């Protein structure tokens, strides 16, 4: 996709990524169904984002920041983690371009977590050959094998 650029995230991006995480959990998670406290989830997420901020990428379209993602090797497979696009940039092919970029870089299977109710994301991942590996209740672990 023309006009897309990727840059390394900086420590000041951690709060924005955390807010996107929180927005997604608040929208799709059934908090009453999880065995731990909401605050524990939020604290875990904040620690994870801060710890790995150097592995996150900023996504730009035509010079404007439009989202973030983290793509990293986890043992013998890659994980696409915390993949977020800001509201005004969804449905423009940016998600497909990021997925294509990640899959082209991967020489091992790729997995991700996605909320079942996030039907647009599930459709996108299916389009790229991801299949449900595990049903976690409100979320799936989806994978794409080589």
Number of domains: 1
Largest sheet: 7 strands, mixed
State the end-to-end CA separation: 23 Å
The CATH homologous superfamily name equals Gcn5-related N-acetyltransferase (GNAT)
CATH topology: Aminopeptidase
CATH top level class name: Alpha Beta
Strands of the largest sheet, in order across it? 1-2-3-4-5-7-6
Mean pLDDT: 93
Per DSSP, the total helix count is 4
Quaternary form: single chain
Number of strands: 7
Q: What proportion strand?
A: 25-35%
H and E string: EHHEEEHEHEE
Characterization of the model:
- It is a single chain.
- This protein has 146 residues and is α+β, with helices and mostly antiparallel strands.
- It has one domain (4-144): Gcn5-related N-acetyltransferase (GNAT) (Aminopeptidase, 3-Layer(aba) Sandwich), CATH 3.40.630.
- The protein is 35% helix and 33% strand.
- It contains 4 helices and 7 strands.
- Helix 1 (14-28) packs antiparallel against helix 2.
- The radius of gyration is 15 Å and the shape is globular.
- The relative contact order is 0.16.
Keywords, separated by commas or semicolons:
single chain, 33% strand, Aminopeptidase, alpha+beta, seven-stranded mixed sheet, globular, 4 helices, 146 residues
What's the topology here?
Elements: E1 4-8, H1 14-28, H2 38-52, E2 56-61, E3 64-74, E4 77-85, H3 94-105, E5 110-115, H4 119-127, E6 131-135, E7 139-144
Parallel strand pairs: 4-5
Antiparallel strand pairs: 1-2, 2-3, 3-4, 5-7, 6-7
Helix pairs in contact: 1-2
């Amino acid at each position: 996709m023309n006009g897309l650029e990727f840059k390394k995230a900086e420590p000041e991006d951690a709060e924005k990524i955390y807010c996107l995480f929180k927005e997604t959990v608040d929208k799709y998670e059934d908090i009453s169904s999880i065995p731990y406290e909401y605050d524990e989830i939020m604290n875990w997420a904040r620690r994870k984002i801060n710890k790995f901020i150097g592995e996150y990428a900023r996504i730009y379209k035509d010079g404007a920041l439009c989202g973030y993602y983290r793509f990293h090797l986890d043992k013998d497979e890659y994980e696409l983690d915390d993949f977020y696009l800001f509201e005004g940039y969804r449905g423009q092919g940016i998600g497909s371009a990021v997925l294509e970029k990640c899959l082209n870089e991967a020489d091992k299977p790729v997995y991700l977590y996605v909320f079942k109710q996030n039907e647009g994301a599930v459709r996108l991942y299916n389009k790229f050959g991801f299949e449900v590996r595990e049903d976690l209740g409100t979320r799936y672990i989806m994978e794409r094998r080589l």
